[in-house]
DNA sequence: TCGTGACGCACC
DNA sequence: AAACGGTGCGTCACGA
């Protein structure tokens, strides 16, 4: 046994690294006692983040508030078997972002997510329910380091963080790469690994009582949502490798052709450099009107769009703009998306998204791995990379105008409620009230949800400011309940510095941006509508067919012969009533690929 | 060479 | 009176 003593404040703790059969027996004796005494911390060190595509487990750690045990499972199948046995047996496991570890354990230790999640508690979830703010928004964030600093011990936080930086330095590499190459017996690595479950247990003890009482019921709910998301992630989405490779090749050719144009005709070396493009344009005598916040030339899509014409004169600014646009498009599509897909497949040719079910201040989810929330929707060719399983077809079910229906529910506004009850055209309704086009009415509706004002409406809709102002006033007059909710939410935000959502989530609001409170209420309640829909789907047995959850939409792969019925069932399970408003859903059968839903004619 | 901020851009 | 909410991620440019 190798023991590493450590002090958290004045308290002595120990990290113990298992080396032989005798040590293992000591671990088992400890574990048997610890798991009957309370929550046991669980954590894994891995070679990297890709549990489905190449990375594997190096160590599994267990711990209570005073002792952390490191089982270097990489060294022997016996150690892995014992780790798996205790992961199966421990009645209550805690970890920070434990969903990550459970995914690894599911894939590489053979203990399923279905088995582990119901016995697991995630300190990230508690942290988010207590204070969802990230560092960039003025919060402490949700890193183990920051939480340790605030709730456990500052010196420990500094040293634990410092140890990784030191490790990376020692191995002359970066922090992300050191995990796979560090010696499994390195004392600093072992100490870091063994401290993690100790800190998770201590954090759990501190955080659990701090969840606001209005949010208490969200604790089991968020754990369930997290489990479902990890099950969907585990399913993965089948990639059409041949199509994707062909697309990658074509995008590369497109990019090279357009970039060569920019270079040869205009001397623009890098189309992604706004500086380069700006000088290219200015060399042609074009004056760039906009400046960025830091005073540089603003060369963005809006500027380039304004330059592009149908049949550009060779050597003109329009010609340069078109070449830059095309090169940027092709390069982004290939490097951000298609090549990522091709490099991210597992042995069965599937890509696994990584869903953080509780991400934004409003609890909105985020998805990486498959950046499903940001793929182009105006064009089908990228989404076409993802296909249904053999014999299946892709279906999608989304909520119809989810956020506006939620707004109708939260505000109780009679006009808006009636509109949805009758399936009326809300955008037209707003437009008629203000005497403008439907397009402007639609923008006004969305802007209301986002908290925008007349200036933005004028900007977006391309109408004069006084008209925009009139539309905003007409909106308030048409939907007095919304105006009232907006007012009371701002008052709530100013008074308390935070708002409480329909589902009992406490969300801080920047006092200078009290108007944002209404959006938080709408966005957050909408997220919970989707999350509850997910729970319904899970209870109805649909989880194995699910592929992605994108804000107000669920994508699934269903057997062709059952797609019609299945998609209607999914829509039925997702649909719900919120304060008397029908949050209605719309099923659609796409075809053999995700892109088939986006093919326009 | 690495980490980070600025910027731009994809989506809901 | 006026106020655009949220996310991820790529490249460039720059400073340690």
Give an account of the 3D structure.
The chain is built from 23 helices and 20 strands. Helix 11 runs antiparallel to helix 14 (317-343). The strands form six sheets. It has a seven-stranded mixed β-sheet with strand order 1-2-5-4-3-6-7, with helices on both faces. It has a four-stranded antiparallel β-sheet with strand order 16-17-13-20. Strands 9-8-12 form a three-stranded antiparallel β-sheet, with no helix packed on it. Strand 4 and strand 5 form a beta hairpin. The longest helix has 27 residues, at 317-343. It has four domains: 2-211, Nucleotidyltransferase, domain 5 (2-Layer Sandwich), CATH 3.30.420.10; 241-343, Taq DNA Polymerase, Chain T, domain 4 (Up-down Bundle), CATH 1.20.1060.10; 351-402 and 525-597, 2-Layer Sandwich (Alpha-Beta Plaits); 403-524, 5' to 3' exonuclease, C-terminal subdomain (DNA polymerase, domain 1, Orthogonal Bundle). It is an alpha+beta fold and 601 residues long. The termini are far apart. The structure holds a DNA duplex (12 and 16 nucleotides).
- How many strands in all? 20
- Unreliable stretches (pLDDT < 50, length at least 5) are none
Rg over CA atoms, rounded to whole Å, is: 27 Å
Number of domains: 4
Task: Give the name of the CATH architecture of the largest domain.
Answer: 2-Layer Sandwich
Number of helices: 23
In this structure, how is the largest beta sheet organized?
Answer: 7 strands, mixed
As a percent range, the share of helical residues equals 40-55%
What would the average pLDDT be, to the nearest integer? 92
């Amino acid at each position: 046994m190798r023991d590493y003593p450590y002090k958290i404040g004045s308290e002595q703790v120990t990290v113990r690294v298992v080396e032989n059969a005798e040590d293992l027996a000591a671990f088992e004796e400890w574990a048997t006692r610890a798991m009957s005494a309370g929550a046991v911390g669980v954590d894994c060190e891995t070679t990297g983040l890709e549990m489905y595509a190449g990375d594997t487990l190096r160590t599994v750690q267990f711990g209570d508030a005073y002792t952390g045990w490191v089982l270097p499972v990489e060294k022997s199948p016996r150690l892995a078997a014992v780790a798996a046995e205790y992961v199966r047996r421990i009645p209550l496991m805690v970890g920070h972002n434990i969903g990550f570890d459970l995914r690894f354990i599911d894939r590489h230790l053979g203990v399923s997510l279905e088995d582990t999640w119901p016995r697991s508690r995630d300190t990230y979830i508690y942290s988010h329910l207590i204070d969802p703010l990230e560092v960039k928004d003025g919060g402490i964030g949700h890193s183990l380091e920051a939480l340790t600093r605030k709730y456990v011990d500052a010196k420990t936080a500094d040293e634990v963080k410092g140890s990784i930086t030191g490790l990376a330095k020692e191995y002359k590499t970066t922090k992300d790469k050191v995990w796979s190459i560090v010696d499994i017996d390195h004392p600093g690595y072992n100490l870091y690994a063994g401290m993690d479950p100790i800190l998770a247990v201590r954090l759990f003890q501190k955080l659990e009582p701090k969840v606001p009482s209005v949010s208490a019921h969200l604790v089991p709910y968020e754990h369930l949502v997290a489990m479902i998301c990890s099950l969907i992630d585990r399913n993965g989405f089948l990639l059409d490798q041949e199509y994707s490779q062909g697309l990658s090749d074509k995008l590369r050719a497109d990019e090279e052709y357009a970039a060569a144009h920019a270079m040869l005709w205009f001397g623009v070396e890098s189309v992604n450099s706004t500086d380069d493009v700006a000088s290219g344009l200015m060399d042609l005598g074009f004056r760039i009107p906009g400046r960025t916040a830091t005073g540089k030339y603003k060369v963005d899509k809006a500027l380039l769009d304004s330059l592009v014409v149908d049949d550009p004169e060779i050597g003109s600014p329009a010609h340069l703009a078109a070449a830059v646009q095309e090169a940027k498009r092709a390069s982004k599509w290939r490097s951000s998306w298609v090549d990522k897909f091709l490099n991210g497949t597992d042995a069965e040719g599937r890509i696994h998204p990584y869903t953080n079910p509780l991400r934004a201040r409003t609890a909105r989810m985020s998805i990486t791995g498959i950046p499903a929330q940001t793929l182009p929707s105006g064009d089908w060719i990228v989404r076409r990379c993802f296909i249904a399983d053999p014999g299946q077809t892709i279906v999608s079910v989304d909520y119809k105008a989810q956020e506006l229906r939620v707004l109708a529910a939260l505000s109780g506004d009679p006009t808006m409620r009636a509109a949805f009850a009758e399936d009326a055209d809300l955008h037209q309704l707003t437009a008629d009230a203000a005497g403008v086009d439907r397009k402007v009415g639609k923008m006004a509706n969305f802007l209301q949800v986002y908290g925008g004002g007349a200036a933005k409406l004028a900007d977006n809709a391309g109408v004069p400011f006084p008209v925009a102002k009139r539309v905003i006033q007409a909106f308030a007059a048409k939907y007095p309940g919304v105006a009232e909710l907006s007012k009371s939410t701002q008052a709530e935000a100013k008074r308390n510095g935070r708002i409480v959502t329909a589902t009992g989530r406490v969300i801080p609001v920047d006092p200078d941006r009290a108007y944002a409170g209404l959006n938080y209420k709408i966005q957050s309640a909408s997220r919970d509508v989707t999350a509850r829909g997910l729970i319904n789907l899970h209870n109805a047995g649909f989880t194995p067919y699910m592929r992605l959850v994108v804000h107000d939409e669920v994508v699934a792969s269903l057997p062709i012969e059952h797609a019609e019925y299945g998609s209607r069932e999914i829509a039925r399970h997702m649909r719900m009533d919120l304060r008397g408003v029908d949050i209605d859903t719309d099923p659609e059968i796409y075809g053999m690929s995700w892109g088939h839903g986006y093919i326009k004619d």
